[in-house]
Amino acid sequence: MWRNMTEASISLGEDQFSCPICQDLLKDPVTIPCGHSYCMNCITDCWNKDDQKGVYSCPQCRQTFTPRPALNKNVMLDEMVEKLKKTRSALSYAGPGDEECDVCTGRKRKAVKSCLMCLESYCQTHFECHEESHTRKRHKVTDATGRIQEMICSKHDRLLEVFCRSDQKCICLICVMDEHKTHDTVSAEAERTEKQKQVGETVIIIQKKIQERQTELQKLSEFVQTHKSSAQAAVEDSERIFTELIHCIEKSQSEVIQMIRDREKAEVSQAEGLLKQLEQEIDDLRRDAELKQLLHTENHIHFLERFQSLSVPPAARDNINVTSLLSYDDVDESVSMLREKLEDLCKEATENIYVIPHMEIVTTSELRTRDEFLQYSCQLTLDPNTAHKYLCLTEGNRVATFIGADQQYPVHPDRFHGFSQVLCRESVCGRCYWEVEWSGMAGVGISVSYKSISRKGGGFECVFGFNNQSWRLSCSDSRCAFRHNQKTIKLPIFYSSSRIGVYVDHRAGILSFYRVSDTMTLIHRIQTTFTQPLYPGFGINFGSTLKLSSAEIL
Q1: Which residue, 417, 475, 416, is CA-closest to 445?
Q2: Is residue 233 part of a domain?
Q3: Which of 5, 81, 457, 472 sees the fewest Cβ atoms within 10 Å?
């Protein structure tokens, strides 16, 4: 009976606090002199239409007012409306996916609380009644989430309030005394507390990883932006330089063409002058017709008078010999030679474009932390039979220093003669990792090499990184570069750590160099095919020292 009365009072309240004009709950309610109440905006708009008449009336009872009454907000009524709004919100009907009130009859309202002892869900009104009926001993309640059936044991229809650690599931008290009586059980609340700690630790780890990724993202974004800016600047410079080069070539083309035309003009002009002379000479020599006519004249006087002018032959001129046509083969040859040189220069310049400082981005997730690399660490020692005579080996052949004085090593075919280099005794195969520390302004070369690398002589065949037998990372205070087979890749200089980690995966053909500090920072990485066992090797420059580090100590 109290349920129906509550619902009826709610319905009555909504009608009593509705605006007769807009039919909705009063908003900024005002009460006019006749006692009826309206929304402030509704009655204002209604009376604005009566301004010309000067007489204002109540839309419900039609009582008139003159002059226009002043409108003031009814504070008490406004508070009652706000309370009604909250009650109406709490007593809204359940929709799809909402937990329904188990007490409501007819159309059910949305549940707001669930009782874990009564195993029922309640709307706001019925929850208040539930609380009033259990004032002496409060029941345990929770927010209605639509999952109350999941909190009930399907076998015993009792509340799940115990956690079985043996089976990793929630059970009821009867289950504890039945099939789980020998299992490790705790209260669900205690297990929740324990699991919540683990979740908290997981959240901390995830947050840390998010921060790490955000840092990496920022660095990568900065690198991308810097790379884009550098690339754009390089494009603009290249366009400018190539434009200048094209103009230079066009200028040379014009000069060559003008030279050919000038030469053509001079030679043709000379030839045309000779042509005119020859034509004149031919004209002069064509007097034989007059001579023949003179021979047949019978007038002796006329013959004698013409004889003087016709009997003297024209003056003899040098013969003109045209040995060959004028040739421009020398010009063609010079221009062709220029083209070949330009092509060679362009090809060389294009190849050099790829030898620029760059950053390598590694996306592999196999090895990231130093601890992961250390599982592949190997112990190395320097082989004194390979050490150059100016290298002094100490600390059990784990430190090499360039001394500059002959160490009087015995003659050995494995010794490097022309360059201050040394190999390790041990070869590396499979996955191997080692660390070195270096010092000295001139720097060192950290390498891997086939054992077949040449030892005698002063050619590139003996130098780490300058042949197809070895790979080398060169480090100094002024530069950092990777070398293989006489090809060089310039790398960013790093100053914060003098410890370098080297990782080799022989089967995968991977060689990586890392800067070792609190984190592992990739310096350079290549992937190739190794056809022989690899030996760590080192080149030590003047005044520099290299030490094979104990990988576990940082």
Answers
A1: 475
A2: no
A3: 5
Kindly report the CA angle at 413 between 407 and 414, in degrees rounded to 5?
Answer: 75
Contact between residue 511 and residue 394 where contact means Cβ atoms under 8 Å apart: no
Q: What separation in angstroms does the CA of 242 have from each of 132, 250, 348, 351?
A: 91, 12, 15, 16
Q: How many domains does the chain have?
A: 2
The answer to whether residue 430 sits within a structural domain is yes
* Residue 327 pLDDT: 66
**What letters, b where the CB count within 10 A reaches 16 and e where it falls short, cover 201-232?**
eeeeeeeeeeeeeeeeeeeeeeeeeeeeeeee
Rounded Cα distance between 45 and 27, Å, is 14
Q: What is the pLDDT of residue 12?
A: 46
CB 403 within 8 A of CB 397: no
| The predicted structure's pLDDT at residue 407 | 94
Q: Which of 75, 90, 105 is the last residue of a domain?
A: 90
- Are the CB atoms for 462 and 455 separated by under 8 Å? yes
Of 65, 90, 115, which one is at a domain's C-terminal end? 90
Structural domain boundaries, residue 62: 2-90
What is the reported pLDDT for 211?
93
* Structure confidence at residue 350 (pLDDT): 66
pLDDT < 70 regions, the chain? 1-15, 87-91, 146-147, 287-289, 309-327, 347-348, 350-366, 495-497, 551-554
pLDDT at 167: 92
- We report the CATH number of the domain holding residue 20 as 3.30.40.10
pLDDT of residue 415: 96
Q: What is the pLDDT at residue 135?
A: 79
Buried b (16+ CB within 10 A) or exposed e, 423-454: bbebbbeebbbbbbbbebeebbbbbbbbeebe
**AA letter at 484:** H
Residue 383: give its domain's CATH number: 2.60.120.920
Within-domain flag for 84: yes
Q: Is residue 304 part of a domain?
A: no
Could you give the angle at the alpha carbon of 194 between the alpha carbons of 191 and 197, nearest 5°?
145
Radius of gyration of the chain (CA): 53
